[in-house]
Design goal:
This protein is of the alpha/beta class. It is built from 5 helices and 7 strands, in the order E-E-H-E-E-H-E-H-E-H-E-H. The structure holds guanosine-5'-diphosphate.
Length: 212
């Protein structure tokens, strides 16, 4: 994996007009609240507290950007999923996240985190609806896999792979745990490959700012 350990905060934005200029290839992470997104980002970057979320429903939602070394940018997208999220919050989310995904030319890959115990919630399906037309490489991380037994693990993988196949969506699926670090190496390898492919296609040089 690129040097994910070097992470630098870039910006937090609540409106599309505040988006940082496009530069390095971006990997966007999304998932409903409490699914383990922050823990997954922290496990993948090797940072204990790079990403942290507010557990308050209805709080202003932001996309948080970090440069994670060797010209890769991570976009931490807000999630919702509380049963009674106000309509206004949902509408704001649709504008911000939907707009970001649709407009972002530098989006190199998308990671959707789903709870391995219950993948494909309505929120998860909503994310796939946003993701499908983008035709970007997709990684589904089945989080909290440490809570599953062997049979449940196989079932979760089959359910997620079957769900993607039923939609005609290509995508990789990994069991993931930020507790045991299962899936960390696999996810890093996949993401590194997609970043490399993006760079090969778009001619982006490593280490933006140095000699460009
Ligand atoms: P977020 O709201 O999606 O960013 O979720 P967090 O990363 O804050 O995690 C939500 C809760 O799930 C916290 O209590 C975490 O400790 C717990 N959690 C996150 N990842 C895992 C995991 O892989 N295994 C287990 N057992 N718990 C996890």
């Amino acid at each position: 994996m690129p040097a994910f350990e070097q992470a630098r905060y870039v910006a937090s934005i609540g409106k599309l007009s505040q988006l940082p200029e496009e530069g390095p290839p971006e990997i966007a992470f999304c998932g409903r609240s409490n699914v383990g997104k922050s823990s997954a980002i922290n496990a993948l970057t090797g940072r204990r507290r790079l990403a942290f979320t507010s557990k308050t429903p209805g709080r202003t939602q932001t996309i948080n950007f970090f440069d994670i070394g060797e010209g890769v940018r991570l976009a931490d997208l807000p999630g919702y999923g509380f049963a009674r999220v106000p309509q206004a919050v949902r509408a704001q989310w649709d504008r911000l996240v939907g707009g970001y995904l649709a407009e972002r030319g530098s989006l190199a890959a998308l990671v959707i985190i789903m709870d391995a115990r219950r993948p494909f919630t309505p929120h998860d399906v909503g994310m796939l609806d946003w993701a499908q037309p983008l035709e970007r490489p997709l990684l589904v991380l089945l989080s909290k896999a440490d809570k599953l037994n062997k049979r449940e693990r196989a079932a979760a993988l089959a359910q997620a792979r079957g769900g993607l196949a039923a939609r005609g969506m290509p995508g990789e699926v990994c069991l993931f745990s930020s507790v045991t670090r299962e899936g960390v190496d696999e996810a890093r390898t996949l993401l590194a490959g997609w970043v490399e492919a993006w760079n090969a296609e778009h001619g982006h040089k490593k280490a933006p700012g140095k000699g460009e």
